[in-house]
Amino acid sequence: MTGIRQLAQHLNLSIGTVSRALNGKPDVNDETRRRVLDAAAAIGYVPNQAGRSLRQGNTNAIGFMIELGADINGNSDTFFMGVFDGVQSVLARHHLDLVALPCPTDENPSAYLQRMIGRRLVDGLIISATHRKDPRIDLLMGARIPFVALGRSETPGDYPWLDLDFDGVARRAIDRLVAAGHSRIAAAVPSNDINLGFVFLDGYKAALKRHGLPFDPGLVMRVPSSELGGYQLGHDILAMENRPSAIVLHYELLALGLYRQLAEAGLQPGRDLAIIGFRDNPVSRYMSPRLTCFRLSLRDLGISLAEALLANMPGYADQYPLGVVRRVVPMDLVDGRSDVPPA
Q1: pLDDT by residue (tens digit) across 142-171?
Q2: Could you list the residue range(s) of the whole structural domain that residue 322 is in?
Q3: Which of 260, 188, 261, 195 lies closest to 225, judged by CA?
Q4: pTM of structure
Q5: CA atoms in the 13 A half-sphere facing the CB of 148
Q6: Most CB within 10 Å of its CB: which of 39, 85, 185, 201?
Q7: d(CA 291, CA 194)
Q8: H or E element: which one contains 80?
Q9: What is the domain-level CATH number for residue 9?
Q10: Is 282 exposed, middle or buried (0-12, 13-18, 19+ CB in 10 A)?
């Protein structure tokens, strides 16, 4: 393995000049930088990342914490892979690496995060699955570690976040169903205390009120956010004496389980139960009838997350003068045939 000393000797340059050229410092002219980079590739120079991190006091890595809860284990969901792609596309501009930090099902997320912080694995963090009161946010602000949250929270503080428009999805779905003649509309919400469920439910209630429809707590269906949760949802609806004519889902894969349960009962989405799903994904495009749902670019979401994080990191804030980003990401309605008017 060739080190920086051998590379400098090969070029007859000082180690400092070679180091600055490799790290993109502005005080190295373009010709010298080109020579250094070409020589590094030719002789197989490999930087000592551990030593570099120790000298610079950073890791050149960004962590993305996800929770491997029972709700999502075994799902065929590609949500985070799409987001990771966008995040990494931004980090690659600055030679930063993305590190996935999956919190195990049986571990407290705050304890897991505390351990990651103690090990100094990353320079900044993206957290997801935010709760209404999220101790991780207090922990990160107290440790003065740059972070951005995927999902808003009621935890106070001056920190950046981006969230999907769960409120708007619920409102627009109710508007569409009421316009089609539905008046008894159910809502599927998470069975845990993740904050998106509260935001989604608030939008659902507000839309019902705007249309003069009463809020019935019995039509709020709490199920795990998974395909199995959708199957359970279908079972619960079929067991109701006074079934709803329509339902709005908070999570994309619920529709898969719900479709299956209805099929086993000899019922058809759209004809016997109007369904509006959450996010358009490759699976939903092949469902029959085609699912009415909402669309967003996961890659663009990842790009926005990474840029919001770098805007709050001292070494990159000048390149991303965004301030503290707090933004709801809109979603576009995709017409399908799963929510036709009731008979």
Answers
A1: 999 999 999 999 999 999 999 999 999 999
A2: 61-164+297-329
A3: 188
A4: 0.81
A5: 26
A6: 185
A7: 25
A8: helix 79-91
A9: 1.10.260.40
A10: exposed
In this structure, the answer to whether residues 279 and 314 fall within a common structural domain is no
Q: Determine the Cα angle at 270 with ends 267 and 275, to 5°.
A: 105
Domain count of the chain? 3
Q: Please, is 343 exposed, middle or buried when counting C-beta atoms within 10 Å of its C-beta (0-12, 13-18, 19+)?
A: exposed
Question: Which of 292, 274, 288 lies closest to 343, judged by CA?
Answer: 274
Residue with tokens 């079972």: 235
| Residues 148 and 115 placed together within one structural domain of the fold | yes
Q: Distance (Å, rounded) from C-alpha 99 to C-alpha 119? A: 14
**Sign of torsion, CA 76 105 165 313?**
negative
Tokens at 203, concatenated: 């939008």
* Structural domain contains residue 335: no
52 is a domain residue: no
Give the residue among 230, 294, 188, 195 at the shortest CA–CA distance from 75. 230
Q: What is the CATH number of the domain that holds 199?
A: 3.40.50.2300
